[in-house]
Amino acid sequence: MKIPFLNFDEMHYPLRSKMIEAFTNFYDRQYYVMGDSLKLFESEYATFSQVNYAIGTSNGLDALFLSLKATGIGPGDEIIIPSNTFIASALAVSFVGARPVFVEPRRDTYNINPDLIEDSITSRTKGIIPVHLYGQSAEMKQIMEIAKHHQLWVIEDNAQAHGSEFNGKITGSWGHINATSFYPGKNLGALGDGGAVTTNFEDLAEKVKSLRNYGSRVKYHNTELGHNMRLDELQSSFLSIKLPFLKEWTQKRRQIASWYSNYLKDLPEIILPEIHPNSDHVYHLFVIRTKKRNSLQEHLNQEGIGTLIHYPIPPHLQEAYSSLGYKKGDFPIAEELAETSLSLPIWPGMTEEMVIQISEKIWEFFEGPN
Ligand SMILES: *Cc1c(COP(=O)(O)O)cnc(C)c1O
Predict the structure, then answer these.
(1) Which of 99, 119, 121, 262 is deepest in the core (most CB within 10 A)?
(2) Does the beta carbon of 157 sit less than 6 angstroms from any atom of ligand 1?
(3) Are residues 176 and 28 in the same domain?
(4) Is 91 exposed, middle or buried, given 0-12, 13-18 or 19+ CB atoms closer than 10 A?
């Protein structure tokens, strides 16, 4: 049986008629951007995130950019981000003219190590972007304390962790202003690009609303230099249909993760995900680690099992960031993770048989057929 890295059947098939009905309504209403569907989804997503405001955006990168821009972070400022993250976290910092300053993750949870943050704070530091990598919340209590002590903004990158929690408090509600993505493959995905900013602060919410829409609150009255970074009506209505099912899908991801852990725990050659005692994991990705990553991936590929690497090159070693002047060896933990991580399939609808099949192929790779 072939097992793809990602498959939407279980999530999308039961919603097919609702989705088509939403499209029909959208089509007939002839209102495509900045209408009632956006407003409705924004209020639903704010409720879900336990914040006062959610503002739909064109995608996750733009949500991060708008969050940073709303706080006034700009040229000359430094923003602390984990050294092992998707490039978007760093790009948003660069696009407001600030400099990303990388801090190493913990070797076990893969999230930014709060104990190392203070060493990287300078007089130019204005904020911290914790990334809830792979679906596990970063250590938000300590991060918020450090930020308060040094008067820094906290902007959560919640693109991979919709509905995750730290100390029982949901991600996307900890920081002053937070960003998420609804890229199709995320735990809550649109059928195209989308994103959102969440915040409890009215002034920041108003600023983001203006910046995402040409710097105007009243049509053709532009009070600042804004952007076009809006979430459209169609994607908003699709997201409203999918949001009520997110909890159920997350439960399924957790079940699959526990099957993997069960079938792989006795295999000494691989490292399984570890969860911080106060964190919650929504398993956007199920990432294992092994020194033989590349040949394991090749073996699984030959067996028809799809895997991906998140991420093969850390931001500080990307060609796009050569101007920052980093070299190999500067962030050894991030580099080691990039060389050893492998993401196994984890999508609602996977059965225990599929997990057994994948696990058997992994055992076979290390120990030979028995
Ligand atoms: C996906 C992702 C983003 C960017 O979201 P897009 O919608 O693709 O722009 C940002 N940060 C992280 C950690 C992501 O995984």
Answers:
(1) 121
(2) yes
(3) yes
(4) middle
